[in-house]
Amino acid sequence: MISLKRTTVTDPAFVELVSMLDKDLWARYPDKQGIFAPSNKLDERVQVVVAFSEGQPLACGGFRPTASTTEIEIKRMFVHPAFRGKGISRMILQELERWASEQHYTSAILETGIKQPEAIRLYETSGFTRIPNYGPYQDIEESVCMRKIFAS
């Protein structure tokens, strides 16, 4: 059985998973990952969800407020390779949306990359639509930016 834990960026399970995520991204985007590093820095404003099974961390994701008072940015979504294809990323994403909605946020933005078709598919099937690249991603052709308005 999979359980979800709302936590912070200092949670050891989250730190472990994000380390794996960073290695995965460096492998996919070796020439560009250094550009993304500043955008991936996490601070105490980031709220995190970690999925566990029998005490083992399986997946994570987080969100942080944007300059808008009604919008969040989804960050650091990752599923351990051994547990992919089981719907865990969708569970994480749905929990992040619920948590954000509880705090009166009404929409989310995110950035993913063209070499992550599984992530693009997850976001599209979860109601996200492509938008022009925003902020630090504006001139990065490998970036795919998306937005979702939460259901009322």
From TrEMBL:
Q: Which organism is it from?
A: Xanthocytophaga agilis
- Extract the GO molecular function terms from the UniProt entry: acyltransferase activity, transferring groups other than amino-acyl groups
Recorded hits in InterPro entries, A to Z, give: Acyl_CoA_acyltransferase, Bact_Acetyltransf, GNAT_dom
**What CDD domains does the annotation carry?**
NAT_SF
Entry's Pfam families?
A: Acetyltransf_1 (PF00583)
The N-acetyltransferase domain is annotated at 7-151
Q: Which UniProt keywords apply?
A: Acyltransferase, Transferase
UniProt keyword annotation of Lipid metabolism present: no
Record-given protein name:
GNAT family N-acetyltransferase
Q: Which Gene3D superfamilies match?
A: 3.40.630.30
Superkingdom as given in the UniProt entry: Bacteria
